[in-house]
Amino acid sequence: MKYIFSFGEITDEIASICGGKGASLAKLTEMRLPVPEGFVLTANAFSGGEIKPEALNELEALVSVLSDKHTYAVRSSALNEDGENASFAGAYETITNAARNDIISAVRRVAASADSLRVRRYAENTGAESGGIAVVIQRFVKPEFAGVVFTSHPISGSAAVMQGNYVRGEGEALVSGAENAEEFTFNAMKYAYGGKSEFERYAKRLFKCCARIRNGCGKPMDIEWAVSGGKVYILQARPITSLRRVNAEKFEVNGSFAGKYLLSKTNVGEIFMRPVSPVTFGVLETICDMTGIPFIDNICGQPYANLSVICSLIVSLGFSEKSAVKKLSEIAGELPQGLEVPIFPFDKKIIRKKMRALLFGSGKDKISRAEKREIKANLGEAADKLIAEIRGITDSKALLSFWETKGKRFISGALGAIMKGANVIPLFGTKKKISRICGEELANELCSGGAGTLDSMKPLLLLEDVIAGKMTRDEYIKLCGHRHVDEMELSAPYPYENPDFPENIIGEHIKSGVNVHRMRAEQEARFNEAVLKFKKQYRNKSKWLDKTLSRFKKANLARENVRSRSVKLFCMMREFLLKAGELSGIGEDIFMLYFGEVLELLKGEKGALANIPARRKSYEENLAYPPFPNLICGRFEPKKWLADERARRDFYSDEEIGCSLSADIKGFSGAAGVVTGRVRVIFSADNAEELQTGEILCAPATNIGWTVIFPRAAAIITDIGAPLSHAAIV
Q1: Which has more pLDDT, 285 or 423?
Q2: Could you report the per-residue pLDDT of 492-549, keeping only the tens digit for each?
Q3: Residue 693: its pLDDT value, please?
Q4: Residue 287: CB partners within 8 Å, gap ≥ 6?
Q5: Residues 663-669: what's their mean pLDDT?
Q6: Residues 6+ apart with CB under 8 A from 413
Q7: Is 8 in the same domain as 134?
Q8: 370, exposed or middle or buried, with CB in 10 Å at 0-12, 13-18, 19+?
Q9: Contact, 461 vs 454, CB < 8 A?
C-alpha cells in the first residue's frame, strides 16, 4: 500500500484519505496556481496517533531525497478539516521552517495534535467530528507578507468586494487569531485595490489567483497566501464556513446562505412545482457542474434560477450591467424598482472547457459524431430500449455495469446533442422588435400565434386523435406517456407507469366538451389575419417579418423539444433508480440517496443508508413549507419569513430597497386580447379539474401537467411567469 502522494498525484479516488487541506492543495495544483510543491501522508498511514511502521519506512525514503537547501512546513490535513461544515483552522499543530532532518518528528507532533484541547473544543462548539488525520509536508516559503482573502463577505455573502488581511512575516499568527493585521479590499468586478501602498505591487497578482480559485471552486472561498521573494504563493483555500449552502448528510439546503444572489422561480419554478427529493437535487447539481454554469439553486428543496449567475455571465460576454439586467426581464419578468442584481466575476474559460466536454465528450465517455447524430435523431427510442434493458437486469453488479458502459454514456451524449442542436436566441427580443414597429397588441397576436405546434400542446391534441380513432393507445403512450406535472422529479411516477393511462384522462376530456383541434385552427386563423394586417400596414417589412417569425417559431419548437427530450433522460434515470432500489432491498428509499451514493450502494457500500432517516425528515419538512417568494435577494430564512406577518409573499430582500406593495396587478401579457369573467384560484394541479369552461384560471404557476385544462380557461394568470415562460407560449 502506498501512503505518500505528491499534490499532483492525488486523484478523486484517494482525495478522501488526504484530508481537507491535502485535497484542496491537490486541486489548486491542478488549476496551475502558484502552490509550493509538497506531499500528503494519507490518513491510513496512522493508527492510534502513531505512524504505522510501513508508512514510516516510506516517509524515511521520501525525506532522504528531499533537498537540504529548503526548509519545510508540516501541517495537519484532518478528514473533516477545511470543509463547508467546519474548518478547524488554527486548531491543529502547524510546524513551519523545519529542516529536512526534523520532518519526521514534526509529522509525529502534528499527528498527536489531533487529540489536543483546541481540537476537542472546536469540535464540541461546531458539532463536527474531527475524524482521522492526514499530514501535509510542503516546501516552506519564508514570507515578507502573509494573510487571508475572503472572496465574498463572510456575513452578507456579497461577492462584489473581496476582503483581505495580512501581516508582515508568517501568516500562522493571523490564521490562529494570535495577531492583528492590516486590511485591504479588491473590487471583484473591475479590479481596484484598497489598502496600504506597501502591498500594492503584489495585489493584482493575488487578486487574479483569488478570482481563479473562486471561479474554479464555484463557491465563496477563504484563501491563505504568502509573498516570498517578490512572488505570490497560494498556501490553502477552503469554503467560507459561515456561507454554508448544503448539509449533504441531512439534506439541508439553502442557496441564499452561499452568497448575495438574486434568485427567481420563473421558468425553474414552472418545471419543479414542488420541493425536489435528494436524488433529484443531486442530479441538478451535477448538470450545473457539467455545464459550468450554476444557474439552478435551491432553498429547502424549492428550486430557483440564479439570476445573479445569468447576469454575471452576460456581463462576462462584454455587455454592460444595465443591458444585462434588461435581458433578464425577458427571462424573469419585471424586477422590483430599486432592486440591484448582485453580480460577480465569471470565468469564461471554465465555461468553455465544461461546455466543450459536454458537447464533444472527453476521455472514455467520448462518443463519435455518428453516435451523437443517432442519439439526437432517435432519443426517445434509444431511451425506451435502455429502459427495457434495465427492467431485465437481475443483479446489482450487472446494473452497475449497465450504468458504466451504457447509461452514463447515453446521458452525456444526449445532453450534448440536445444542447448543441437548440438555438433559442431568437426568443430574446423578438416581441420587442415587432412591437416597436406595430405596437404591443399586434405584436402579441403575431408572437402568441406564431409559435407553432409545441411539444407541450401535443398531449391534448393527440388525446383527441386517440378518441377519434386516428391514433392507438400504445402510440399515444409512446409519444406522451412521459409528460406530466412533476416530470423532472425522479421520485414521481410517470403516466406510462399507470396501467389505466390514458383511459383515466379520456373520460374527463370528453366530458369537458372542448375541441382543441378547432381551437388551434381558430388560433392559426387569427395569426394569419395578424400577419396580413402587419404586411398591409408595413409593406417594406414583409420579408423581414417572415424571417423573424420563422426564426421565432423554430426557437420555440427547439426549446419545447429540448424539454421533452430531456424528460426522456429522466425517465431512463428513474427506471435505473427503481431497479437499484429493488435489487438493494431499500425500495423507494433509493430517492433519499444522491446518485453517486446509489452507485456505491450497487458496489456493496452501505454507509450512506444511515443518512436516510435524517434526509427523509428534511424532505418531509420541505414538502410542508408553502411556496417561497418568487424573487429572493440575499439571505433568506424560511422560518423567520413565515413568522413575520408583514412579510411579502411575492418578493424578499434582506435589505430595504424602498419597494412598496401596490393594489394594482402588474405583469406581462402572454397573449393578445381582453377577457372578463369568473376567476377560479387553484393552487395545485391535483385540483385542476375544478376549473369550469369559460373561467379565468389563477394559479401560482402552470406547466405541461396543467395543459389538459387550458382549453377550458378563458385566460390564465400565474404568479410565476415571464415572456419566455411556459404559460406565455402554450
Answers
A1: 285
A2: 999 999 999 999 888 888 887 888 888 888 888 888 999 999 999 999 999 999 999 9
A3: 86
A4: 296, 415
A5: 63
A6: 361, 367, 371, 372, 375
A7: yes
A8: exposed
A9: no
pLDDT at 130: 46
Q: How many domains does the chain have?
A: 3
120 with 204, same domain? no
Is 710 inside a domain boundary? yes
Residue type, 329: S
- CATH number of the domain that residue 707 is part of: 3.50.30.10
Residue 368, φ and ψ in degrees, nearest 5:
-75, 165
Last residue of a domain, one of 100, 122, 140: 140
Mapping DSSP onto H, E and C, the string for 394-407 reads: CCHHHHHHHHHHHH
Rounded to whole angstroms, the Cα distance separating 451 from 473 reads 27
> Are 179 and 196 contained in the same domain?
yes
The answer to pTM > 0.90 is no
**pLDDT grade for 556, boundaries at 50, 70 and 90:** confident
Q: Which domain covers residue 723, as residue numbers?
A: 679-729
User: Are residue 94 and residue 162 in the same domain, yes or no?
Assistant: no
Confidence at residue 190, expressed as pLDDT on a 0 to 100 scale: 80
**pLDDT reported for residue 418:** 67
Say whether both 105 and 155 belong to one domain: no
What interhelical angle do 440-449 and 542-584 show, nearest 10? Answer: 50
With 80 as the cut, is the pLDDT of residue 435 above it?
A: yes
Each residue of 315-330: pLDDT tens digit? 887 888 888 888 777 6
Q: How many CB atoms lie within 10 A of CB 336?
A: 15
For the record, the C-alpha cell of 599 comes out as 452507485
